[in-house]
Every structure is written in C-alpha cells, then in structure tokens.
C-alpha cells in the first residue's frame, strides 16, 4: 500500500529542500563539531564539540514547540511573530506557507519548511559557541541557548525573513548573512567580554590538537553550504543553481586571496589561515548568493579574503581586543564578513537576480538603485544593536539572577574535559585512572563517583605544564 501525494506537492522540490536541510545540518553535526574539536587544545576537544552537539538538540525542541512560529508565523509585533507549536499532524502535512510575507504555495509540506529553517537556527547558536570555547561553564551554556534563540534569533529571522519591518523596508539577506552570521558574530564577540577570558596560559598557547580533523570539518562546511544557499529559493530553480555556483566562486576566491596575503606577509601559506579565508568567503556570499552575478561573487570573494584578513591580523592584535577573548575570531569571520557581504549586496545585487529570487527590489547600486545600500546598512545596524543589548542581558540574567557562573572554575580550566565531562578525547593511555572501574569514560569507584585525588593530580600536572 502506498501513500497518495496531494496535488500541490512537487516531489522534486520536496526532495531538494530535505536534502538541502540535511546538508546544512551536517555543517553543524559533525562539521563544526570537528572544526571546534580540532582547532582547540587537546584538553578542550570534547567540551568544544559537546557545546555544538547540545545546541543542535536544544534548538530543535524549542523550534518545534514555539520558536518557528515566532520567527515565521503571524505577526505579533513588527519584529516578531506569535509563538506556538509546529508539531500538530494537520499542520505538518499541510502545504508550506509564510503567512506574514504573503509568500505561499511552496510545493512541499510545512514539516519540510520547519526542519529547513531549524538547521539555520541551530547553526547560529553553534557559531556563537566558537567565540566562547575553552572557558564557558557548560550549565550556563545550556541555559543561554534557549534564551538567546527566543529573544534574539527569532527577532532577526522574523524582521528580515518572516515579514517583519526590515522585510517590508526591502532589506536583502538572501540566506543569513545578517540573520545568522552577523547576529552570531556580534553575540559571540560581546559575550566574550562578559564571560571573561581563558586562562592566560591557554591564550598564550592554544595550539590546535588536530588540524587534519579540523580540515575534515571544513570540507563538510564548504560543501554543506550548497544546501545553505542553494535551498533558499524554496524550489529547485535556476536561481538555486546560480546561488550554489556563486557560493563556491566567492569561497574559492576568498581562500586564494587569504593564502596569498599569508605568503606575502608571513612568507608561508598557513592551513589555519586559509580556513579563515574559506569561512569568510562562505559568510560574505551568503546574503548575496542568489541575487548577484558571477563577477559579483568574485568581487565579494576578493573583499572577504582581504578585509577580514587585515582585521584579524592587524586590528585583532591591538590592545583593545585583548579585553575580548574571542577564541576562534568570530568577530572577524562572521560579524565583519556578514556585514561586509550585506553591504556589498547593496552594491552588486542585480534586478534579474532579485526577480529570480522572488523579490521586488530593483537590484542594487549597480542597477541604479543606490537606496539599497542604505537599506542594507539599516538592517545591519538593527541586528548589531539588538544583539549588543540582548546578549549581555541574557548572560547577566544567568549570572546574577539564576546565580550560575558564566566561567568555569580555575581548576576546571586547568584540567579541561576530564573535570567537566569525566571523559577524554584521546584514550591512548590510562595513566590518569587511579581506580579499577571505568564505565563509559567515567573514572570512579564503580558507582560513578569521580576519583578526586586523580583529578587533583591532573590539575597539578597542568599547572606544571
């Protein structure tokens, strides 16, 4: 017995949206999990991956219980929709619509739309974690994720994508340069000040423990971006193909420019360097992918490979930046690159590209619509301002109202994964195990109790190192 598909369903579009959503999900798990685990010191490998893993799961539950409709449902305020559940079967099976924007008739079910938008929300929280690796209290992170999703992400998504005031003004954010990257970069950067820095020894020496593993994650990130940008026309359209091509053009150009600057100034190509160039290219093309021509993607890649390079290697080393311990530099790779890409949309969006994406905008300055530049600046300022307020507000609420420390204790910072999760990333030897019972990575007396003598010994070893 086979199910009968409704007349409005396009099997090809539905298949593409589910595939694109899976590509984006793979960017987070395992893509960013591998990048984070490989780019940090060995003692932080598990905690770094775990922060991403947890965020992915928590965002999904919040998303289907109330957050999807707050981001894409009926308008409650000019910047947010009415929250509500997205899990009733009659809702999941009906045709996808975006009521606040008037965009309706997508030839796939609401369940597909809800999941597709979820993976975008999830990766935003995962990206914030990149700024706070190596010191954030995991319990504080557990609380922060649903609060920030509720108070920040849903607002940005509704305002720009869901029919809110920035959407009505005409701000263009093709696939999340503002909603995802600018918001996560801003939140990660300002939050790093309120959480506090890593140990000084970790800041002085934070050598990646597995660069090849991180590169594997980068490969998933790059190719997964085909779903990130290729899925946003909500149909397997010519614009989806153009977006995928432009994404790869800009990323390759940014990669090569960053590598060239490393060779020019540091005399050697750096793998860690080109990873940053790859990421800034992906981020900068995201708000523009389906609305610019191929040559526009080349220019965006040129800018994203050079301007963030200057920011990271020159401004990032100034005294003022010492107060912001942004572990993986999301202020450069996401905040700056996202705002840069959004600004360049105002310059290089074409009228034909906007029409192909279903927008009424008459392109950007290149097609005589200079007003689009100012609209893009307004959109960026709103996202930055909203996150500069709400991210510290949430963190201070967790710290002073809920009485949950934002930063780990000094001993936990010395030990790392074994103190926080009772697990270690690489179990080639068992010298830290002082008792005969080891159950699923837990060291103890057989009842799950931690051998505190062993943990103290690890801390003393860390101090000596």
TrEMBL record:
Protein name stated in the entry: Ammonium transporter
Signal peptide: none
Organism annotation: Viridothelium virens
TM regions (residue ranges): 16-36, 48-68, 114-133, 140-166, 178-196, 208-228, 240-259, 271-289, 295-315, 336-361, 373-398
Superkingdom classification of source: Eukaryota
GO cellular component, one term: plasma membrane
Annotated keywords: Ammonia transport, Membrane, Transmembrane, Transmembrane helix, Transport
Record membrane topology: Multi-pass membrane protein
Domain Ammonium transporter AmtB-like positions: 16-426
Subcellular localization(s) per the UniProt record: Cell membrane; Membrane
Record keyword Membrane present: yes
Similarity remark: Belongs to the ammonia transporter channel (TC 1.A.11.2) family.
One protein family per Pfam: Ammonium_transp
């Amino acid at each position: 017995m086979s199910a009968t598909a409704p007349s409005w369903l396009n099997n090809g579009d539905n298949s593409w949206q589910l595939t694109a959503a899976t590509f984006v999900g793979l960017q987070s798990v395992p893509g960013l999990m591998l990048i984070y685990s490989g780019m940090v010191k060995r003692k932080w490998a598990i905690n770094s991956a775990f922060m991403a893993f947890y965020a992915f799961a928590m965002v999904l539950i919040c998303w289907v219980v109330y957050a999807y409709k707050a981001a894409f449902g009926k308008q409650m305020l000019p910047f947010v929709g009415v929250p509500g559940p997205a899990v009733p079967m009659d809702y999941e099976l009906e045709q996808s619509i975006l009521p606040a924007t008037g965009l309706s008739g997508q030839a796939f079910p609401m369940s597909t739309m809800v999941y597709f938008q979820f993976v975008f929300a999830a990766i935003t929280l995962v990206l914030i974690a990149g700024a706070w690796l190596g010191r954030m209290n995991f319990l504080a992170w557990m609380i922060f994720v649903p609060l920030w999703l509720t108070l920040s992400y849903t607002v940005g998504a509704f305002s720009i994508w869901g029919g809110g005031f920035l959407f009505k003004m005409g701000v263009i954010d093709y696939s999340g340069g503002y909603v995802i990257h600018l918001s996560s970069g801003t939140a990660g950067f300002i939050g790093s000040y309120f959480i506090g820095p890593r140990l000084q020894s970790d800041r002085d020496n934070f050598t990646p423990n597995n660069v090849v593993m991180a590169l594997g994650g980068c490969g998933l990130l790059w190719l997964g971006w085909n779903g990130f940008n290729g899925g946003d026309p909500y149909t397997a359209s010519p614009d989806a193909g153009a977006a995928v091509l432009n994404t790869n053009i800009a990323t390759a150009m940014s990669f090569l420019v960053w590598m060239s600057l490393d060779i020019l100034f540091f005399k050697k190509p750096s793998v860690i360097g080109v990873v940053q160039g790859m990421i800034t290219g992906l981020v900068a093309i995201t708000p523009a992918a389906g609305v610019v021509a191929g040559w526009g993607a080349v220019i965006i890649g040129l800018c994203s490979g050079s301007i963030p390079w200057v920011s990271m290697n020159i401004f990032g080393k100034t005294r003022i930046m010492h107060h912001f311990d942004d572990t993986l530099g999301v202020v450069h790779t996401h905040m700056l690159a996202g705002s840069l890409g959004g600004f360049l949309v105002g310059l290089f969006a074409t009228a034909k590209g906007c029409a192909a994406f279903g927008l009424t905008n008459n392109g950007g300055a290149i097609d005589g619509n200079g007003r689009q530049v100012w609209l893009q600046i307004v959109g960026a300022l709103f996202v930055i301002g909203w996150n500069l307020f709400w991210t510290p507000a949430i963190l201070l609420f967790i710290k002073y109202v809920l009485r949950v420390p934002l930063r780990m204790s000094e001993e936990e910072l010395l030990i790392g994964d074994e103190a926080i999760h009772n697990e270690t990333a690489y179990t080639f030897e068992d010298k830290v195990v002082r008792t005969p019972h080891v159950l699923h990575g837990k060291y103890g007396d057989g009842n799950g109790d931690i051998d505190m003598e062993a943990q103290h010994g690890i801390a003393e070893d860390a101090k000596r190192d």
